[in-house]
Each structure stands twice: as structure tokens, then as C-alpha cells.
Amino acid sequence: MIYRVAAFYQFAPLADYRELREPLRALCASLGIKGSVLLAQEGINGTVAGTAEAIDAFAHELAHGEMFGGRLDNLELKFSTSEAMPFGRLKVRLKKEIVTLGDAAADPTRQVGTYVDAAQWNALIAEPDTLVLDTRNAFEVAMGTFEGAVDPGIRSFGEFKEFAAQQLDPAKHRRIAMFCTGGIRCEKASAHLLARGFAEVYHLKGGILRYLEDVPEQQSRWRGECFVFDERVALGHGLREHGLREHGVRERQKDASADE
Q: Which stretches make up the Rhodanese domain (predicted)?
């Protein structure tokens, strides 16, 4: 059986996020969907899997159903497949942030960097005055990244603030192009840099997953595999499963599962 996997997020005011938890859990259970969903006052973030019909019904409810009342009208949603169910159970959790940075000034509902589609990404990162920045954790970067990208060397996304304070300078780094797995960390990171006075901040729309889906392998500037937070472990071009299991990947996946 082939399962459909949906990775999704949107920053949107959800003042009633606590009340949404049980209805959302019940919807997923009724559709036989497993995976992880985070709810916070700032929005929703998750990756779930099920049959194609179940995932279609779930996605339709998020974007168009009564549960969210049209508040998720700009949902960033990506689909891939798995030959086995990539999640053991369903988790719907309440959080302070849907991706943890710990900076109240970094509010993607007010300002974010400039989105760059996968088709335009290669040209942007090839420009000599562009600092290409990987915002993911160090072990993710070690598995794969874009040519010439800077690895911030962080263990979790919450450390990005310290990296930016110590290593990035608005006067020196006039143009920054950042990327992450699905796009959500870049939303927070770009909002953080803009709040600190950086003038030109770009981020890859839909993240690495969208790039690997849309850009032909022969034109790609991606090298290696893209770590994902489920049992598939890593994906390559065309979002093909790589399933790397060695080098303690499973333990690090568990430790970092809230980052994306």
C-alpha cells in the first residue's frame, strides 16, 4: 500500500487553538490518519500520513472547513508518498510556538522575508554577494545541503538567535538567502533578521522539499539527502525515499522532532 504524506503549516492567529485540539484529533482518528500536529496561538504545523482519500479530506477541512473557518487560507502544503506508514501514532499537541525560536519580535504574521520559488532559487544563490544560509540543525546539514551554504552549527533552531547575533551583521551581509526543510523555520528566521535591521532577506518557498520536487536533478544545486522527521528518515530528488538508518539518525530525529 502506498501512503500519502502531507507536510503543512501556516502562521495565522488562532486564539482558540486549545479548543481546536480535540476536534482536530477526532477528525484525524476518523480518517485513520497518523502523524504529528502542533497547534499554537500563532498557527499550525504538522506532518501526517494516510490513504490518498483521507489526506485529501483532511487538507480540505483545514483550508475550507468549519473547524478553522477560513483562517488557513494560505496553507503551505506539500505531498509525498511512503511505501509504509511512516508514523506509529497520532499526536496533536499544544505549544507556545509552532516552531520554537523564543523571539517575540519574530512574528511572521507581520513581516517575513521575500519568498523565492524553486525555479528562481538557483539564480539567487549563484549571485556572488548573496549569503546562502542553511537554518537547519547541524546533523541535518551533514546529510545534505546546497552548494556554498553556510552551516550555522546549531543543535536546535532555538540557537539561531545566538548564531545571528554573533555571526551576522546587517552592514556586512546585505543580502541573505535562507532555506530549511519545508519553509517554516525560514519564516521565523527571516522575521527575526528583519526585526534586527537586515535589509534583504529571501527564503526558499516551500523549502528543500518543494525544490527537490520541482527542480530536475540535472539542474539541481542540492547535494546529498534531505532529512525528514518521520520513519522515512531522508528524501532525495523527486521526494524519493532514501531511508538512511545509520550514524544514530533515529536518536537525533527524536531529539529534534519539534524543530520542523
A: 126-220
